[in-house]
Amino acid sequence: MFPILGKEQLSPTITKFVVHAPYIARKRQAGNFVIVRVIETGERIPLTIAEGDSDEGSITLIVQAVGKTTKLLCSKEIGDQLVDVVGPLGNPTEIAKDSVVACIGGGVGTAELYPITKALHEHNNKIYTIIGARNKDLIILESEMAECSDHLFVTTDDGSYKRKGLVTHQLKDLLDAQVEIDAVYAIGPLPMMKAVSQLTEHYGIKTYVSLNAVMVDGTGMCGGCRVSVDGQMKFACVDGPEFDGHEVDFDELMKRNRTYVDFEQEADRTYCEAHKSRVVA
Amino acid sequence: MSVLNPLKPSERMKIPRQESIEQSANDRSRNFLEVSFGLNEERARVEATRCLECKNPICTEGCPVEIDIRSFIQAILQKDYLGAVKKIREANSLPAICGRVCPQEEQCEAVCTLGKKNPAVAIGKLERFVADYEMENNLFSVPEISIRREGKVAIVGSGPSGLTCAAELAKLGYKVTIFEALHAVGGVLRYGIPEFRLPRKILDLETERIKALGVEIITNFVVGRTATIDEFFGEWGFSAVFLGTGAGSPHFMGIPGESASGVYSANEFLTRVNLMKAYQFPDYDTPIRAGKRVAVIGGGNTAMDAVRTAKRLGAEKAHLVYRRSKKEMPARVEEVHHAEQEGIEFLLMTNPVRILTDGQNWVVGMECQRMELGEPDDSGRRKPVPIPGSNFVIDIDTVIEAVGQAPNPIIQATTPGLKIGKKGVVVTDESQRTSRDGIFAGGDLSRGGATVILAMRDGKLAAAAIHEYLSRKQTNHEDDSPLYTNSYCQYIS
Ligand SMILES: Cc1cc2nc3c(=O)[nH]c(=O)nc-3n(C[C@H](O)[C@H](O)[C@H](O)COP(=O)(O)OP(=O)(O)OC[C@H]3O[C@@H](n4cnc5c(N)ncnc54)[C@H](O)[C@@H]3O)c2cc1C
Ligand code: SF4
Ligand code: FES
């Protein structure tokens, strides 16, 4: 069992948890994830490790309540236990050194981007960070990201905070202003990573994206997380989760990720009906 | 001839082979309860009287772990069922499991003297009968471990090879810890083989028995990621390691359309159902898209399990597509037979070439071609070759591929100096030693996809080799250091 040591609300729907998992805390590197099962009857879901504290023996997970499992997780309190946490899984991010990079986070993807940005910062890179979300409420970790970036830009789709528009608008402005960028790290919803990759391909800039495929085991055993990269079948959990954005077949993955939507909606509806009073919309 | 069985050999030969009592095909293809109830006492005793009690019981030679089959059958004749199961346990620690899943027709029963002219003695069914007798009457007793030996052993993977190796070493007095990547114990016995062939209560019971020997089991621990083998030898203080991580990485055929929604590896399909209980959605949260018209590709046990599971999940049409003939199917004959009874449609000498999808990437059909047997290949087997112009489309909405699997590469990639052979298997000698001192391996990891009993055999041989290794070795580790600190007790299941 993995007890929850800390909990903080980052936005109405995004929660940060600190979970006791000493072995994972010691080994985790930027880009790694864990597979979590909240309760005995629960499903196994992947969550990026946002931070680790090997002294305290804890890892930080940032969770957006979007479906049954994440809502259930977000309803857990300090002292509650998660039944399973396994990791660190996936390959760590290739961290560039002494170069100029852009880090681009969309929505809760910013939580996944944060440890990478921090590692890039520690490796003496000049960092342009762009974080974006649908609206102000969904912008997270702004001050943390600012701390490890040389320049920070924020966009919201609806203009409720800072620049109105998409992260790609901001990125394009930078590139058009002749900012020399060696590599881009983009993490967020698939359409966002696709748009960033299309843009950077045009400018010939190496782009890393992190793919959130549907996973079961997370150890290369089921093949459910398979994605097409440069026409080859790869398992996101063991060959990734990071891939060259210019080689990923995003359209295929978007369709694959819809395989269980109706099940997810049903599970969510049943859960919300049973927990009406407790759930944030 | 024994005094216990007065029948002459010619009379014994006339007795028909006893059949198990089974759920009707119609009932069972709609539930996940065990298909076969096995032999009842009366049938078991009749079956035992068929045994010729050969002077040279060749059946034992056919058994990968050399169970003294004649003696256990003689114990049944004496109604000493507990004595019979004890006899089996001298060689095989998982009789209730092996009695259910071993391919006896290729092992003991293949060589049985009676089997030369008549149906062989139903050795597997008798094994199951006495194992179930022991279980139902709660007669199992944990062996006394009289001696404590120096040296801690790490077992990686809790499949049959790891469980067997752990039990053998614990009985020898070693401190043993099993590390398992998943949240539950048993390997393929847990996530692969369905409930209707191997009820989980048997596996749970065997796990409890292994724990009762003092073996510690740590789940949620991916060796190579959570800690490496070299760390096991270093800070963790283990003096030997057994690798039994199986061959869990699924192959895909490499035909167009495999990325479609509705295409599963058998591993994923079976894991969702067996490990995650997707068939109880929404009580369990893991979903599965079971399909109304399903095609399973392959001819092994995995294919058989997947197609019969699909049927139980409500498939109106469940096809098995195999490129050779029924004779070549590697699956246990009993499973093939059960599948046929349950209404599985076999498309033999048929090879898929393409999965057809709609605009949303859902499976809408599969194009196949007919095969015929061509020239013999290097192995002397006639190779199936496509018949030109024979292509046709089957109307399906789900494809499950059971076309083989390879060892998961995580351990190999994180353990320098481990010799890897063809298809990613870990190379061992006949005592299960790998190229690295103190590291042993067995089961599907070193064989690349075999059977439960061969995995157990490897686990047993490895335990003997580890015992020899540790006895010879002057260990430098302080053995009285506690293996566990409070901080990671949470992992112990
Ligand atoms: C669906 C199916 C049906 C089958 N039916 C039969 C049958 O009827 N009869 C028969 O004899 N055989 C059958 N087999 C084959 C048989 O199950 C295997 O040969 C046998 O289970 C192999 O045992 P093993 O101990 O080598 O590995 P496995 O049973 O594969 O167990 C390996 C374990 O190691 C764990 N693991 C992997 N990597 C790591 C890691 N890095 N760290 C920690 N743990 C790890 C895995 O999670 C798994 O639990 C079947 C196989 C399948 C897939
Ligand atoms: S070979 Fe067959 S008949 Fe002979 S002892 Fe073994 S089971 Fe009995
Ligand atoms: S999640 Fe199962 S192989 Fe990646």
Element layout with pairings:
The complex is a heterodimer of chains A (281) and B (493).
Chain A: E1 2-9, E2 14-20, H1 22-27, E3 33-37, E4 45-53, E5 58-64, H2 68-74, E6 81-82, E7 84-89, E8 100-106, H3 109-122, E9 126-133, H4 142-147, E10 151-156, E11 163-164, H5 167-176, E12 183-187, H6 190-203, E13 206-210, E14 226-229, E15 232-235, H7 236-239, E16 242-244, H8 250-256, H9 261-274
Parallel strand pairs in A: 8-9, 8-12, 9-10, 10-11, 12-13
Antiparallel strand pairs in A: 1-2, 1-6, 2-5, 3-4, 3-7, 4-5, 13-16, 14-15
Helix pairs in contact in A: 2-9, 5-6
Chain B: H1 9-14, E1 21-22, H2 25-28, E2 36-38, H3 41-50, H4 58-62, H5 69-77, H6 81-89, H7 95-101, H8 108-111, H9 123-136, E3 152-156, H10 160-171, E4 175-179, H11 188-191, H12 200-212, E5 216-218, H13 229-233, E6 240-243, E7 249-250, E8 263-265, H14 266-275, E9 293-297, H15 301-312, E10 317-321, H16 333-341, E11 345-347, E12 350-357, E13 363-376, E14 382-386, E15 392-394, E16 398-401, E17 405-406, H17 410-414, E18 439-441, H18 444-447, H19 452-472
Parallel strand pairs in B: 3-4, 3-6, 4-5, 6-18, 8-16, 9-10, 9-16, 10-11
Antiparallel strand pairs in B: 1-2, 7-17, 12-13, 13-14, 13-15
Helix pairs in contact in B: 3-5, 5-6, 5-9, 6-9, 7-9, 10-19, 14-15
Iron/sulfur cluster is lined by residues 51-54, 57-59, 69-70, 112-114, 121, 123 of chain B.
